What we know:
Helix content is 47%, strand content 17%. With 205 residues, it is of the alpha/beta class.
Amino acid sequence: MSVIIIDPCCFTATGIRNYIKQKCRRERVIVDTHPTRILTSSFNLIMPRLVIINDGCFSHHDFCIDYFRSVIQNNKSVLFIVFVSSFNIRYQELVMLDYNLIICSKEIKKTTLGALLSPNLLSTNIAENACNFSLSPTELILASLWVQGMAVEGIASTLGITAKTVSSHKCNIKRKLRTHNMQVIYNIVRLSEMLLPGPSGSISR
């Protein structure tokens, strides 16, 4: 089986590649800096079991996020790991956006990365202990307004709820994502809006 690494940062891509080769010597590791090329012309030929992609690739001039979303949805046996390149704080949680879609920062521990390479990931403690992206439809809408900078009163007015309810939802979002850092929450919400087909695409416990 193969592992695909898509990362414009050669230093990071090489580090991940070398670690995978050390841990899984029989794995074929393919590194590419061009997401569209590898996901369109080569994906079905390579048949990877794991795809690691830097979210910076999503801003590539010819990258089609709709196509990438369909690749994720149509290949449930492939695990997709999205590294959030803009995290500059020590957020070491894994966030499971969907059954086969995990986001994390580059602060990920080596032991966690090693566990992610396991072909039986979903039966390991890593999967059990990951943040399960189980925000309710209301929490998703509220989080989107929140990270846009809207104040509590504005969110309450927009959603037709009380300010106290808004504050309660915000506490629930922080608890579920295990962070109070707005940069982390912003990136998780941003990626959920980009990569999930809708509220029904999120998984719940």
